[in-house]
Amino acid sequence: MEETEVTVIGGGIMGLSTAYHLAKLGVKVIxxxxxxxxxxxxxxxxGSISKGDPESPMVSAIFAGSYKMYQDWNESGELGYxxxxxxxxGLRCFTDEHVERMKYGMWKRRRELWKEDGLxxxxxxxxxxxxxxxxxxxRWGIESTNTMINIFRVCRGxxxxxxxxxxxxxxxxxxxxxxxxxxxxxxxxxxxxxIKTKFVINAAGAWAxxxxxxxxxxxxxxxxxxxxxxxxxxxxxxxxxxxxxxxxWFNPDQPFITNSKDPSxxxxxxxxxxxxxxxxxxxxxxSEHIVPLPERGAKRSVEPxxxxxxxxxxxxxVPKLENINIMRVYAGMRPVCEVDGYPILGEVEGIEGxxxxxxPWHNGMSYGPMCGKLxxxxxTGEKTSIPIEEFSFSxxxxxxxxxxxxxxxxx
Length: 411
Description:
By secondary structure, the chain is of the alpha/beta class. The chain folds into two domains: 2-81 and 151-220 and 339-407, 3-Layer(bba) Sandwich (FAD/NAD(P)-binding domain), CATH 3.50.50.60; 89-146 and 222-337, D-Amino Acid Oxidase, subunit A, domain 2 (D-Amino Acid Oxidase, Chain A, domain 2, 2-Layer Sandwich), CATH 3.30.9.10. It has helices spanning 13-24, 57-76, 96-101, 105-116, 151-164, 208-214, 263-266, 304-317, 364-380, 395-398, and strands at 2-3, 6-9, 29-32, 48-49, 86-94, 121-123, 140-148, 168-170, 175-181, 184-190, 193-196, 199-202, 221-231, 242-245, 271-276, 281-285, 289-290, 326-337, 344-347, 354-358. The radius of gyration is 21 Å and the shape is globular.
């Protein structure tokens, strides 16, 4: 039997950041993951991070805190890796139909938010960085500067630093049960033995509901698959490092249309093209639709129909991509809080020592570093650097969602 103060379940950015911050404070911590480090959502995104969010002051504060941590880690070498923190020119591109839609509804609101963030819609002829290989009907764009990181190096660096400060990391270790007695967390049962612990941090991402059911709660997180294609090394055919094109029908709050006959709408396909200069290749994404969790492990097989739609979307935007070979493809499970899309952060009332840190939809790499610090502050009894009541588990009872399934069992 192992014995520790805190057991973190999940080896993605949330879990790794939490383990790192706790270990650095001298707290005894064990992190367990059923697969390798960053096998889920944290290892299947493009690595874009944000400095803020104009829609939510609290989210903006978390993003800003994480961004500052990335800068500090990069300058100090704290994580032991060069994780390639780099600004790259970004572009959101649009057709005439998009611009017409921006007069009303969702697209109008999105344009207002971009404008509040200092981003201006301009004609293609006025772009600071030209894109001669785009499709002719892409006549508008919003240029910006995006910050990119190497996601694998960040996650491996956090694991390395956490271990340096005394954390123990157990990969390929599956959690079978969370032991609760007298309303308190007492231990975690894994396929490798039992861990006696005072706190459990459920940072299991898309698998967080599985861990929640072990203590009798329903965590409203759904598994959404994200898919990407990686090209062979190739001379650049685009000039912006990050390019985003979302079809007119695409709604970021409801990105897929379940019953649509159009596979792109049904699978939630939009186009992201990221140029990784060190490798001289492109990462092309993305998909957004709910799928069942895999029966075993964190890996998810790619879907041929999804790959086809992503490729067609990229070629529609940049026709010359049709002549580039694909080197590999991959998919990852993203956790999405089905109630409001925001993360769940904090202790679950009625289960002392059980804390949830999961569920942010997109921007997980922007949430992760600061959320790990906030959870570590909860564990050590400090006042959190940023108020997190908005993200508490108890918010679901107020919304009409009833997560306390143990109160509604008939047996």
